[in-house]
Design a protein that fits this description.
The longest helix has 78 residues, at 269-346. The protein has a six-stranded antiparallel β-sheet. The protein has a five-stranded parallel β-sheet with strand order 8-12-13-3-14. The protein has helices at 33-48, 105-112, 117-124, 134-151, 158-217, 226-265, 269-346, 351-392, 424-443, 461-473, 486-494, and strands at 2-11, 14-20, 25-29, 64-72, 75-83, 88-94, 99-101, 125-126, 399-402, 408-412, 415-418, 450-452, 478-482, 499-500. The chain has 501 residues and is an alpha/beta fold. A hairpin with a 2-residue loop joins strand 4 and strand 5.
């Protein structure tokens, strides 16, 4: 693959910028760090589409448009793309065949062939190290070497991938524990609610028993209830009242008749008055007895009415309690069914458990595959990186050691030097060697270009010239950004063949 020309019509701070790349070593001097990153990001986006942030949203800097001329698979292409906030449009033109192709990303990927986005990031694009010095720089380089040697793809970074998987698994485990705890709490609440309802149902039963006792106490005999007895007594009093009333009337009538007869036959008013007086006294006595019976009758009727009211209220209260008890029993039955369903659901694997099983499978798979990948690419990567390091150090460092503990050291003559004891310049050369080895090992049949940010800040003059000299004769198309124009003079004085853009 070769990149022949790039036209940035609009991207970030760039407007109508044209860059033509030649064969061999291309040098872009005086370009600031942000501009270097922007150029590489633009080329990457033109070939592989706009990047996504960690949240899956399109990055704001991804809008823009431009044209890139490149070669892949023995053919020349011109790719025009425009990225707006809402859509991507473009045209892919094969200059070799004159055919206009579909500019969808899947078609562009098929043209690029084996040069995937991951390979571009790790074998084509060489980024500057983030940490300037110290143990953090050593750790960054060792992690890069570990991931590159372990997978053949520094972008995959198995260590970080494993850590992310484990973090995800931990998150699912926490969520699963929360769900299980919530299920347990829910079951406890259901059991507590059932106990509460049972107590309330028992209390209602006790109240009903009290009402039944009160109803029983209103019964006057075991064979009959109080209402019948009261009715019988009232009926007896009514009969008694009727008899007394009849007797009283008869007494009054007889008294009146006797007095009249005596007065007419005996012509004696004294006997008539005496009989009348006696009749009146008898009538008054009978009237007193009769009034007593009437009062007793009214009393019994009032008592019956109160008895009936009391009986009705007890019956109404009992019916209300019966209804409430039925509702409680229904609620208890529903809660028992819900509790049973919750217990059955507790035996069903949670979604989090399925995710944890999937993550465990992924972790196990990565552990198995990492060994296979090492057997296929790891040794090739170490061998090639050792050759490159030997070239740029003029034979001073001839072997890189990567032990079973993933620790890096180098052979310098008869001495084995651990990575922690290397100076900044040697660390930079070690990083460069592995970046170039990645491009060679992962290239396959397609030769890959190199696009390099300014990584020379840690190099001395001799090391800078050694790296640039190696790039100039490597046979790979290389575009190197350097921050200072003075370094161009060093290249020219050293006679290193390059194209200044």
């Amino acid at each position: 693959m070769k990149i022949n020309r790039v036209e940035i019509k609009e991207y970030g701070r760039f407007h109508n910028r044209m860059i033509e790349f030649a064969e061999g070593l291309n040098v872009l001097p005086g370009i600031r760090k942000e501009e270097q990153m922007a150029i590489h990001a633009f080329i990457r986006q033109m070939l592989y589409g706009r990047p996504k942030s960690q949240t899956g949203q399109t990055e704001k800097e991804a809008v823009g448009e431009g044209i890139i001329w490149f070669e892949a698979g023995g053919k020349k292409f011109r790719l025009t793309r425009s990225f707006t906030e809402t859509e991507d449009t473009g045209e892919l033109f094969c200059e070799t065949s004159g055919e206009i192709l579909n500019a969808q990303q899947d078609k562009i990927d098929s043209v690029l062939g084996d040069i995937s986005e991951s390979i571009f990031d790790n074998a084509v694009y060489v980024t500057a190290l983030k940490n300037p010095s110290g143990s953090s720089l050593v750790r960054e380089i060792q992690n890069y070497i570990k991931s590159s040697v372990g997978t053949g793809d520094g972008n995959l970074e198995l260590g970080r991938t494993m850590q992310m998987l484990k973090m995800s698994r931990k998150g699912y485990q926490v969520q699963m524990e929360r769900d299980r705890k919530a299920q347990t709490e829910q079951q406890k609440l259901l059991v507590g609610e059932m106990k509460k309802l049972r107590r309330e149902a028992e209390d209602l039963e006790e109240e009903k028993e009290q009402i039944r006792s009160q109803e029983t106490s209103l019964r006057m005999t075991e064979a009959d209830n109080g209402e019948n007895i009261l009715d019988e007594k009232i009926a007896g009093l009514e009969r008694k009242n009727f008899i007394q009333t009849t007797v009283l009337i008869m007494t009054v009538l007889l008294t009146f008749a006797g007095a009249l007869i005596l007065a007419m036959q005996m012509r004696s008013p004294i006997w008539a008055v005496t009989v009348a007086a006696a009749g009146i006294l008898i009538s008054l006595a009978e009237g007193g007895f009769q009034m007593g019976t009437v009062r007793e009758l009214e009393k019994r009727k009032r008592y019956r009415k109160r008895w009936l009211n009391r009986q009705g209220k007890l019956k109404e209260s009992r019916e209300i309690l019966d209804e409430e008890q039925k509702e409680k029993i229904t609620a208890i039955t529903n809660l028992m069914e819900e509790h049973q369903e919750a217990q059955e659901h507790a035996h069903i694997p949670l979604a989090e458990e399925l995710e944890i099983d999937s993550l465990n499978l992924a972790i196990d798979t990565i552990n198995r595959l990492s060994g296979r990948i090492w057997n296929r690419l790891g040794e090739d990567m170490l061998t090639k990186a050792s050759e490159i390091l030997n070239d740029v150090t003029a034979g001073k460092c001839w072997d890189i050691i990567f032990d079973t503990g993933s620790h890096v050291s180098i052979h310098a003559g008869e001495e084995e030097i651990p990575i922690e004891k290397l100076n900044r310049g040697m660390l930079g050369l070690l990083y460069f060697a592995f970046c170039m080895a990645a491009g060679t090992v992962m290239a396959g049949e397609e030769e890959l270009p190199v696009m390099m940010e300014d990584i020379f800040g840690m190099f001395g003059q001799e090391q800078f010239l050694a790296v640039m000299g190696w790039l100039a004769v490597s046979g790979r198309q290389t575009a190197v950004c350097i921050s200072h124009t003075e370094e161009v003079e060093l290249l020219q004085k050293a006679g290193i063949s390059c194209t200044i853009l």
